[in-house]
TrEMBL record:
Signal sequence residues: none
Transmembrane residue ranges: 12-36, 56-75, 87-107, 127-144
Origin: domain of life: Bacteria
Family, as annotated: Belongs to the GtrA family.
UniProt protein name: Flippase GtrA
Location(s), subcellular: Membrane
Coiled-coil ranges from the UniProt annotation: none
Domain GtrA/DPMS transmembrane: 14-150
Keywords: Membrane, Transmembrane, Transmembrane helix
Lineage: Bacteria, Pseudomonadati, Bacteroidota, Flavobacteriia, Flavobacteriales
Organism this protein belongs to: Chryseobacterium geocarposphaerae
Amino acid sequence: MREILIRQKQVLFFIIAGGLSAIVEIGSFKVFSTYLPQFLSREMNFHGIHYPLSNIFSTCCGIITNYFLSIWFVFERGKHSKRREFAYFMMVSFVSTLLSLGFFQVFYSFIFKDNIDLRVYTLSPEMISKIAAILLVSILNYSVKKKVIFNG
């Protein structure tokens, strides 16, 4: 029974940490995707890839936030040293970043074509695509980080 409660608490904290990291990632994506195209005209479409630097920079902001929230609130330290744990975390995050970028491109190019009006804020296709990609990759992240990195 205690193990079930601990697992539920961990999942809840993972969702909270993931939500906060997603806010950082989405917010920084909004900033980068607004201002980078003013300096780099190819940012909006670099050989068919939409907002590549904005995606990469914002994902890095989200990863760093998620790492610290994960070690402070979500997972207990595993059997790995801090250095190895960080390296594994970054490797998993790198693969997750590639997946997220791929999902973003598919969503932005083929699925989300129109704005979504929420009355107080309008979500653009690039923001909807970013949010959808984050949600999809988050499921994989929890499983891999728990089993491989933090040995849960």
